Amino acid sequence: MSYILIIFLASSVISLIHRYIWIRNNEIERIKEYYGPYVKSYSEIIMQTLKNRLNFLEYVKFEIEQNGPFNIKNQIVLDSVRNRNPDIMGIGILNKNGKSIYFSPLKDINNMPNKGKDFSDREYFKKVKVTNAPVIGEVVIGKSSKQILIPMIYPLKNDAYLLAGIDVNMIRNVVNIFKTSFRDDVKITLVDNLGRVISMPHGKEFEEEIKDLSDLPVFKAANTKTDGFLLYTSKYDNKPKYGVFNKLPNHWVIWVGIDKEVIDKRIESSFYFALSWNTIIFVVSIFGAMLLSFIITKPITKFSEYAQNITQKNFYIDDDLGLKNCKIEEICKLHSSFKEMVTRLSESYNLLETKIQERTKELNDVLEKLKETNIKLEEKIKESEQANQAKSEFLANMSHELRTPLNSIIGFTDLLLMNENFDEETKEQLGYIKKSGVHLLSLINDILDLSKVEAGKLEPYLEDLDIKATMEEIFIFFKEKAMKHKINTEVKIETDIQKINADKRMIKQVLFNLLSNAFKFTKDGGSIGVIVKDYIENGNTFILFEVYDTGIGIPEDKQKLLFKPFTQIENVLTKTTGGTGLGLALCKRFVELHNGKIWVESKENVGSKFYFTIPA
User: Tell me, what's the pLDDT at 331?
Assistant: First the structure.
């Protein structure tokens, strides 16, 4: 009995030690699982914020390259960009030697001219010259504003570069929003690729100093892997913390630090709770063990021996099982049942062995067939993926190759139309050339957009879109056609929401395509309009755009084909109006990129109504 107690006590101590280790490991795993997704999502949000600003600079780059990098008009463009974007502290054009040609503002904080300033010593300038690709640099003190900036630089043609200094507070404001998701003892830190502080909401003095944290273990660990977890000592309060980190694609690092002291207290609390329960269980088990020892331990030991034999496929059992003098009724019944069970188990085992051999053979045959089928399927999938990739690359390449000569044709046609020496017939023919070129260029752009969407390379640039102003801009394109064909037009805005967050170009393209189809298939004297109103679905608020017409309508059995690429509904009018069948397919893709949906209701010879939704 004493040996049993000693063994039980030792096992309880070992169990407590194991329990403590388990609680600690479980708490650490919980930290990883809870904070890991947060830190990763924060990294994605910060990177998307930087990409949005970089995408904006791409539009500026396009306008500057149209003017020519060394055109004096670019100073007006730079001033306009900076005035309309408060987070851009300075923006300029550099020559190949890193000196500014044009710069906004014209003078720095010391009232010295910014034109001619040398940026060739900056690391981001050296990098963009090597890569010839956009670069997001490490945080710097601006040469013009003398404030902390995030530099972004874009290569231009003719060995020039577009440089912008973004206010670091744009990123700090984003990180401050993250801070509200956690308790006060959880600290967030963001550093650049050199380990210098970009944002530390709990340590403003480190932000202003751009404190170097490159020697912290958490930053060093981020140089070897994208994300992870470790214990480190904070430079801010010199306290040990558990850190969960994630490295951004531009090699910035973000982490959250949780005080080790807080976690240790939580572990101790859980351990003491477990210790209390173990003590209670130990006392109860002592009395239970004593009872079992005197009553049923001996017969149970005998049953255990025979059970062990059964696991080794030995089904022999003594008739009395060593229990002739059994005085406990339950044990006697167990004896009888055990013998019967073993007999049936032996029979079942033999039958099972036979069945297993049969099924194993069948399964091996099926497995061989499945392997052959899988090999063929993998080959087909690979062929399909290669064909789809080749199609997308061909469409994109051919679209680019065709747009360049088409733009030249349209440009030369415009120049010829400006010549007053041509007679009206010649000008009319030149007008046909220009109209055909513009139409073909529009079709090529549709093909390029569709290939980008299918390849996942086209993302919406979200900004505030004024609903009323957008509708006015769109209907200007159709004003002349409506008057010529005596078509009644109307716009009804039945919502109090004035602006939505969407990609202006995509929304305008959707409305333009739907209205173009409406005018194309509506006879003289008909009606066309747009109604904008609120739309609630699954508890979410959307803006619903309804484009209606009194045209020829669409057969019900053909409506499901409308939004497929290169699909047209055959009728008399489509043979005269033409088209590629890409317009509605693009509309569907653009709407779905905004998490909306598009559908149609139509009756032949009555008219059509196209609906699409955009989140409010």
Answer: 67
Same domain, 469 and 602: yes
pLDDT over 70, % of the chain: 85
- Report whether the peptide linkage leading into residue 105 is cis, meaning its omega lies within 30 degrees of zero: yes
CA distance 150 to 152: 7
pTM score of the predicted model: 0.44
Residue 601 φ then ψ, to 5°: -130, 130
What average pLDDT does the segment 387-402 reach? Answer: 69
d(CA 325, CA 387): 83
pLDDT for 28-46, tens place per residue? Answer: 888 888 888 888 998 999 9
Chain-centroid distance of CA 596 in Å reads: 17
Report how far residue 404's alpha carbon sits from residue 434's, in angstroms, rounded to the nearest whole number. 15
**Same domain, yes or no: 467 and 452:** no
Give, in order, the Cα–Cα distances in Å from 209 to each of 188, 192, 196, 251, 315.
17, 14, 9, 21, 81
The answer to whether the CB of 254 falls within 8 A of the CB of 43 is yes
607 in Cβ contact with 542 (< 8 Å): no
> Distance between CA 268 and CA 145 in Å, rounded?
52
Please give the residue range of the domain that contains residue 534.
Answer: 463-615
Residues 450 and 521 in one domain: no
Does some domain include residue 151? Answer: yes
DSSP conformation letters of 356-397: HHHHHHHHHHHHHHHHHHHHHHHHHHHHHHHHHHHHHHHHHH
Work out the mean pLDDT of the chain and round it to a whole number: 83
- Determine the Cα–Cα distance for residues 479 and 492; give it in Å rounded to an integer: 17
CA-to-CA separations, 568 to 34, 447, 451, in angstroms, rounded: 51, 15, 19
Q: Do 544 and 450 share a structural domain?
A: no
Residue with token string 């149209």: 66
Q: Please, what's the largest Cα pairwise distance for the chain?
A: 131
Q: What is the pLDDT of residue 316?
A: 65
pLDDT at 574 over 50: no
Task: Tell me the pLDDT tens digit for each residue of 417-429.
Answer: 887 788 888 888 8
pLDDT in tens, 49-88: 999 998 999 999 999 989 888 889 999 999 999 999 999 9
135/229 same-domain check: yes
471 assigned to some structural domain: yes
